[in-house]
Every structure is written in structure tokens, then in C-alpha cells.
Amino acid sequence: MSEGADGGGDGASARSPGGSPGGDGFAPSALGTREHWDAVYERELQTFQEYGDTGEIWFGEESMTRLIRWMQKHKIPLDASVLDIGTGNGVFLVELAKSGFSNITGIDYSPSAIRLSGSIIEKEGLSNIKLKVEDFLNPSTKLSGFHVCIDKGTFDAISLHPDSAVEKRKQYVQSLSRALNVKGFFLITSCNWTKEELLNEFSEGFELFEELPTPKFTFGGRSGNSVAALVFQKT
Ligand SMILES: C[S@@+](CC[C@H](N)C(=O)[O-])C[C@H]1O[C@@H](n2cnc3c(N)ncnc32)[C@H](O)[C@@H]1O
Question: Cellular component per GO (predicted)?
Fold first, then answer.
């Protein structure tokens, strides 16, 4: 996983040629731990307070536009309940609110991420965004009934957890099933998983609705995408 892999970054993934103990080819990484994200967002909060800089936008600005455009094209009602899983600095929530969505919730297991997103949202003068510290792998019972769930880099981060990453991914799919309404949409952007791999990860209870176009790269005569962006629908 690399920051800004879409639109600016190098698109390098965290896949290691040697493979991980879990057999997925991922090298376990600090990016999979809460301590890492707490430290990142603590730092970004300080930077925001000092300079007003909101910090890293994962996968670049275009990744947010791509999702919002899809929601508008498919006439997702502006009052549909939308959950941003692992919201980080919450900048995507701000963009959703500016696009007119009025029933939006951001969760993150890092309290410093939620403090940062709260500060950014407050500075933007937006008052109707719900924020909660929640571990999506162990969510509260209240985290249900959503029409749209969005993941930009969070499943990637969870996949890099040093312990039991395979189990954690299964827990993720279960939590998603609980959070999302039947026929609800799940929009995932990932730089660690290909389209085929994501189809496999979310094969139970979800079906592919649409693949969103992402920038292509060409290397050694072969072309591919460094980022996958898929829309699933809960069956
Ligand atoms: C790569 S960052 C992406 C942040 C944000 N979605 C964005 O696009 O800028 C991954 C985020 O997932 C959060 N995260 C990782 N595991 C989580 C979990 N189990 N529950 C909730 N949030 C989690 C991290 O704290 C971090 O904010």
C-alpha cells in the first residue's frame, strides 16, 4: 500500500515476492496496526492546528471525485445513509457533505483520526456529519442500516496486520454484511488487491455491480491498473 497511489504516487503495493505466513503474499506491516495510525493522525492533527494543512488524501483527489460521481450518476438519494469505513482525516466526508449528502457517518478506530476529522469538519462549518471511534472488526450493534458503505484504503490496511490478517479480513466481510442494508452498495478502492482478488474476498453475500475506471500504467509491454475501484451490491 502506498500513499496517493492513484494520481501522484508510484502505485507500489505492499505485496512481497516472498509471501506472508498467511499465504497472501503480503508482508505484515506497521500500516496494519492502530499504533501506527494513532501516531500518523496525532502528527497530522498538530500540523492541521499549526498550518491548517488537512494532510494526506489517500489515492488522491480523483479517488473522491470518482466515488461521488458514481453516487450522483446512480441517483443515490442525498439523504441516503452513508458510512465511511476508516475515515482517517475525514476529508472524504467533507466532500460528500459539500456535494449535498446529508446523512453521513465516519468511523475510525484511531481516536486521533476522529479528533482530526472533527477539527477539519468544524473548520469547514459543517455540523451534520456523525463521527465515531469504532473498530470495524468489532463494531457496536448500532453500526447497521447503511445504504452505502465506502472504503478507501482501510481494507488494504487491515490486510497488512501482523497477526491473523486472514481472520481479520473475514471479520471485515462479516462486519460489512451487518452494516449494509440488503441491496446496499459497497464502494472499495484498493491498491493492494486486484479486481479478481476483491471479487474473491467479497464473494459471499456481495456481487459486483460495477468496476470504476482507474488510471492505467504500462510497464514492459504489459498494462494494468495500480488501483482497483469496485462497487459491490449486497445480495
Ligand atoms: C489508508 S488510511 C485511509 C484513510 C481514509 N479512508 C482516506 O481515504 O484518506 C486507513 C484508515 O483505516 C483506519 N483503520 C484501519 N483499521 C481499522 C479498523 N479495524 N477499524 C476502523 N478503522 C480502521 C486507519 O486508522 C486509517 O485511518
Answer: cytoplasm; cytosol; nucleoplasm
List the 104-108 sheet strands across, edge first. 129-133, 104-108, 82-85, 146-152, 180-190, 228-234, 206-212
pTM of the model: 0.91
Any atom of ligand 1 within 6 Å of the Cβ of 155 = no
Ligand 1, residues 37, 59, 105, 137: which to mutate, most atoms within 8 A of Cβ? Answer: 37
Q: Is the CB of 135 under 6 A from ligand 1?
A: yes
Residue 129's nearest CA partner among 101, 99, 89 is 101
